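Please, structure for the following, as tokens.
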Amino acid sequence: MRKAVQIVIILVLFASCGPKPSKSIAHVTKEIDTYILKVDAKTNLKEERTEGALTDAEGFKDIGKFKYTVYFDEKTNELYKIRNIEMTDKTISETYYFKDDDLVRIDTDIKGVSGQMYVQKYKFISEHKTDAKTQKLLLEKARRFQKNFNKEHE
């Protein structure tokens, strides 16, 4: 009997100290959505806008214009979101959301099609309707915007 109790105790300890199951994608996306609602409701975030011309690949011909806005906590320099709009023959809108210096969601409106892409550690964790080339471009833009923000707010 005593040996059986010891075995049960060992099994309970082993189970409680073992690896924790990871959260489901549905749970993670729900947490991100809740976080984004809080970010969008914040009225005390500092906004910095940058506007300019978009040029062709050679950099000579103007093909449109861009405007992006950075939203962050002025006291802590914590980045919350970046909204980017590019206007050429079509308008592209992207909003990048950050939490604890990590990209968590990208909201897009590309060619009139809206989408939300959930991200962890710069990898997509949800189903999305964009092609691999567009996904790569969005992640590169997010990194570039975040790097630029960090450089300006060191």
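The beta strands are 46-55, 62-72, 79-87, 91-99, 102-110, 113-120, 123-124. Residues 71 and 146 are 11 Å apart (CA to CA).
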